[in-house]
Design a protein that fits this description.
The chain is of the alpha+beta class and about 375 residues long. It folds into 3 domains: about 50-140, no CATH class; about 150-240, Electron Transport, Fmn-binding Protein, Chain A (Pnp Oxidase, Chain A), CATH 2.30.110.10; about 250-360, Thrombin, subunit H. It has helices at about 1-45, 50-65, 70-85, 95-110, 120-140, 350-360; strands at about 155-160, 165-175, 180, 200-205, 210-225, 225-230, 240, 250-265, 270-275, 285-290, 295-300, 310-315, 320-330, 340-345, 365-370, 375-380. Strands 1-2-3-6-5-4 form a 6-stranded antiparallel barrel. Strand 2 and strand 3 form a beta hairpin. Helix 2 crosses helix 3 (about 70-85), helix 4 (about 95-110) runs antiparallel to helix 5 and helix 5 packs across helix 6. The longest helix has about 45 residues, at about 1-45. The radius of gyration is 33 Å and the shape is extended.
Length: about 375
């Protein structure tokens, strides 16, 4: 009996030890879960103002550099975001509207700044436009447009009938069987009406992509939402014109362009080259669209590819802009001249800033006084 009691005691003691071991493991697991939960909670807790500012600034700068912005441009953009009190600073890299709003405020601030030279003012403005160009360029997708069926209402067009001339229009509606465009206005604002079946050459610039052209013809006329319209034939064959790295904007302004002649002098070993603008060979054309990198000129007498030119045009009723460039390609139209694509090779910083302000629509509204009330009113620029 004593032996049995002893054996029973030992068995019971062994069982208690196992229970304690399992209980200890369970307690350890619970403690481990609590520690992991506390660590995760600590990581997720709101940072202090100093921590958040440090983290946001570092991440903002890394994002800016990943978009291709130089250090100077990242610093300028970060300063603007802080000054304008943007609640979600990183949106300037993905939202074009947010970026434009911030850059416009910065541009207006530079224009109103006192105590800086004109040269410094233009330099600061140029940095802001370069920020826009770099971020926009990085966000391009540039899907190729295959058919006019994909054109959206509001798309600007340049229409050229077989008889000649270039007329501004836009897409009003896009139907399955035809494209409805606004009836172009001719001389003195008279509406243009061509016979049905008249061949048309249509040119357009697709935002953030490239220029396209296609052949069509007049199918008829109609009135859509009170607007006189031309019905034209769809095209499934669109020609993609020269693609520019910078955004372009339609303008349709008269211009003069001059050939440039290279004069060589000096010895054969050390020749000196000088560019001479041939003023007496001035030719009239129309700047169809404009970008920071070049322009397209509609003309009856386009120069050959590779020709050096100087272009004079006006965009804001100020002093004419002068730009030097090179003809990169020519889209000729039999008996009607053609479109000459010019890449700028020399533009002053001041002129380039004016071009960018127009292309990105950053022109500041003009404030004047209403005669009756004396309150400030906003008048859009002409």
């Amino acid at each position: 009996m004593i032996l049995l009691a002893t054996m029973n005691y030992k068995l019971i003691g062994s069982a208690d030890q196992n229970t304690l071991l399992y209980f200890g493991i369970a307690i350890g697991a619970v403690v481990l879960l609590i520690l992991v939960g506390a660590l995760v909670s600590r990581r997720r807790r709101p940072r202090t103002a100093a921590e958040a500012q440090k983290y946001s600034s570092a991440f903002f700068r890394r994002t800016g550099r990943s978009m291709g912005l130089p250090a100077l441009h990242v610093e300028a953009l970060e300063d603007l975001v802080r000054i304008t009190k943007v609640k979600q600073p990183l949106l300037v890299f993905s939202s074009a509207g947010m970026l434009d709003d911030v850059l416009k405020k910065g541009l207006y601030s530079v224009e109103a700044a006192r105590g800086i030279s004109d040269e410094e003012r233009e330099r600061r403005k140029a940095v802001l436009f370069q920020i826009k160009q770099i971020i926009e360029g990085g966000a391009r997708k540039g899907a190729v447009l295959r058919s006019s069926v994909l054109l959206k209402p509001g798309q600007l067009l340049t229409v050229s009938p077989a008889a000649g001339g270039h007329f501004a229009s836009k897409v009003v509606s896009n139907m399955k069987d035809f494209l409805t465009i606004s009836a172009p206005a001719g001389a003195a604002g008279v509406e243009m009406r061509w016979m049905r079946g008249t061949p048309l050459a249509v040119y357009l610039w697709r935002e953030n992509d490239a220029g396209y052209s296609f052949q069509s013809k007049v199918l008829g006329y109609d009135t859509v939402k009170g607007l006189s319209c031309v019905l034209i034939q769809h095209s499934k064959t669109l020609r993609r014109e020269q693609r520019r790295k910078a955004r372009r904007r339609q303008i349709m302004r008269a211009c003069f362009y001059y050939p440039i002649r290279i004069i060589e002098s000096g010895s054969a070993r050390r020749p000196k080259r000088k560019a001479s603008v041939e003023q007496n060979l001035r030719t009239l054309g129309t700047v169809a669209d404009l970008s920071a990198g070049g322009c397209a000129i509609q003309t009856l007498s386009p120069f050959d590819k590779g020709k050096l030119v100087m272009v004079e045009f006006d965009i804001d009723r100020k002093a004419p802009i002068r730009a030097f460039g090179k003809v990169m390609s020519v889209h000729r139209r039999k008996g009607r001249g053609g479109i000459m694509h010019v890449m700028f090779t020399g533009v002053t910083r001041q002129y380039l800033n004016r071009i960018c302000s127009f292309v990105y629509d950053f022109t500041r509204p003009v404030e004047t006084r209403a005669p009756a009330t004396g309150r400030a009113v906003t008048v859009p620029p002409r």
